[in-house]
Each structure stands twice: as C-alpha cells, then as structure tokens.
Amino acid sequence: MPVVPSIAVEELRVVRGETVALDGVSLRVSAGRVTGLLGPSGSGKSTLLRAIVGVQRIASGRVTVLGQPAGSSQLRAHLGYVTQAPSVYPDLSVRENLRYFARIVGVTRERVDEVIDTVGLADVGGRVVGRLSGGQRARVSLATALLHDPELLVLDEPTVGLDPVLRRDLWETFHALADRDRTLLVSSHVMDEADRCDDLLLLRDGRLLAAGTPQELREQTGTRELESVFLRLIEARA
Amino acid sequence: MNGRAASATTIRVLTQLRRDPRTIGLIVVVPCVLEILLKEIFSGRPDVFQHVGAPLLGLFPFISMFVVTSVTMLRERTSGTLERLMTMPLAKIDVLLGYAAAFALVAVVQAIVVSLLAFGPLGLEVAGPRAAVVGLAVANATLGMALGLFVSAFATTEFQAVQFMPALVFPQLLLCGLFVARDDMANWLQWISAALPLVYAYDALARVARGGGYGSPFILDVAVTLGVVVLALALAAATLRRRTA
User: Fold this and answer.
1) N or C end of chain A, less CB within 10 A?
2) Cβ atoms of B224 and B204 closer than 8 Å
C-alpha cells in the first residue's frame, strides 16, 4: 500500500462570512488511491476541496498538494477539479466545450473523443450542453477534468443524479485511474458510495470526524453498516 | 501569458456568439436602425445629421460592447467556469485578451456595416478619411468592451450589470460634447468630462468628421482612448481572483 501523501492538510481553518466553515481540519490523502470525503451537506466538503485546489481563501493552516503549497501555479498542470455545479458552457456543444479546455491544457482532439467515451457521452457529443440532462451535464464537467490525465483529481459530488449503472461505471473509471497511480479525492453525501472508496474521510460541522479504510472504520465502531458507522461516531463525540 | 489559452478563448467566445444569432443580429442591426432614425428625425436639418452622424458611428459600438461584455463576463464569474479556468494552466490576462480579441472582431464587423450604411445610402459625409472613422469606431468598441469586462467585477447579478449602462455610460454621453460643446459647459462639468474616457474617443471622431487638426490634441485623444483600454484590461485582470471567500 503506497503511503506517500498526495495531499496534506494541517490545522486548516476557513471562515466564510460569519460562519466557520472548517475548524482546524488535519488530514492526509494517499497517492494512487480513491479517497471518499463524506459528510452531510453543509459539513464543509466543498470548502475543503476548494482549499485543496487553491481557490478558497483560508484563515489559517497549511495545505500541501503534491509537495507544493495549494494554489501554486506549478500545480495547475497536474490537477483536475470538478465543481459541484457543472462548470461548463451551456451554449456550446459537448465537443466544443471539451475542445476549448483541451486547447488550454494542450491535449489533442483525439484525447477529447477519448474522454467523451470515458464518461459515456459519445452519442451526444454534438449536442448543446444546455439541452442535456443534469446528469449528462455533470459528466461533461467531469470529462473536462480528465482531459490532461492529471495526477490528482478532485471531484465534488460527481455522481449526484446519475443512474445506478452509470454510477457503477464511473466508480470503475475512478479505480482504473487509481490503478495507474492517479490520486482521487471524491466527495459524496450518500453513504452507500463509501464502500466504493479505498479510504474515507468523514466530515461534520467543519471538523474531521474520522479517517481510515472502510474496514478500519467498521472495526473501530463495531458496526457492519457504514451508515451506522457515521451515527456511532457522532454519538461518541456527543 | 499563454497565447494558446488566449486564442482558445477567442475561438470559444466566437463559437458561443455564433450559436446566438439573435445577439449578433442585435449588435449589427440596432446601430443601423438608430443611424437611420437619426437621419430621419433631422430630415429638416440635414446639417445636424452631418454633425453628429460620424461620432455616433463610434458611440453605438461603445454602448453595445459595454453591455454585451459586462453580462458575458459576469456569467463567466457566476457560472463556475471562471473558477475552473483559475485552476488550469493559464494566466488571468489570457482570458481577458481572448475576450478582447473576440469582441474586437465583432466590433470590426459592426463598425464596417454601420459605416457602409451611413456613408452609402444615408449620405453621411466626413471631411477626414472614412477609414479613420471606422478605425476609431473599433477603438470605441474596444473601449466599451474593456470597461464592460472591468465593471462586471462589481455586479453580482445580470440586473446590476445592465444597470451599469445608465450609471456609467449615460453621464459620459451627456458630457462628451455630443449634446453641448464642452467649451460651453460650466467649468466644473468640463473638469469632470476631462476625466471621462469616452470624451476622448468622441473628440477624436469629431475631429476626423470636421477634418481639422490631426496634431497633438488628436494624438492625445487616441492615446488616452487606447491607454484606458489597456488600463481597464489590467484592472479587470486584477479583479479576477484565483482565491475567493
């Protein structure tokens, strides 16, 4: 099992407006693994991911990504980030969207067709994104982050609203990437996705509740269901 | 800077426009209709049309580019695409230069069409070279575009962005010398107008229309206009934040 951390977060504190979004979070994300960031909505998942990709203003603490401070310009070529709301151009077709981002990261048109295949959108490649379903739009956004085959993929709820078959396929894609030594950090608010991850980070109210493999967390709490793992951990804190 | 990212952005913005033929139509047709209206309302006083027709060739592109770019850029800021771009290998100015080039191209088309109409069927005459009028019209459009890109940072909704037009454009129209010559204004108004970029753009056009004096005042007008374009683009780049709260 590789132990080189791709991401190291130390005592991260983020204040958004009046609220403390993250309150002293420290964690590690291992290279070449699929790490799930789980927690209810409003727990600070998106804020944490934003801090890792370097677009979040932070109050204090340190975030190191691939050995560099988060947000440094050398990192941008090695990072793929998918926001929760699909951030693509609704008035362009799937292929036009991807070709734009492909030019920026410097990959070929063939690569555009490859990633369209990967996310299962080959049959709607010429369609305008604004006319696609929410799930299809989310996949266009995901495809964009895959273009340059980045070392680290940060995905904010990439499987929301997708049908079960597609969800399974995407998780297989994530693991295939991890098998090629890519690191994935995937957030989700549904616990049934937890079992698909190699490692888990449980976040609640801006604090890290627990971290470990699904198996470790089960043993720690003495429960079989991951859903109850969360409950046990919360109750233990209270 | 990354020329590839800038040119990619230009192509992307033009593709978006191509998918929106109604906007292109409005950008090109509206100034033509207004120029025709202007000719007709002054049918009894053709000298007035001859006096303001050429400067207005430059003011229409200024206004339409200001509105279009401020809304487009605001969309980029609010839709998450800008945040995504900020995590990618490109400089902030690349995005803006890409936008600038795309809209400058649209402005060239707009200025040429309106000028052809004005100098042709409408019979507008200018003492200076017509090409200079077209060139200055494009410079005006570029100025409107650069200011639009910049002010989009201060709007959080499209309603606000659109309101910037009456707030920032109309005062400049009133004070630029179109309605009342600047020399006839109260002293304090002259001082204010001296600080408004559109005043210089208008002045340059008026000079070409009159055909008089391409000396230092004209050079100053053009220099200020282009200088403000560069300044506004630089300020707009400064408002693009990689990190936000």
Assistant:
1) C
2) no
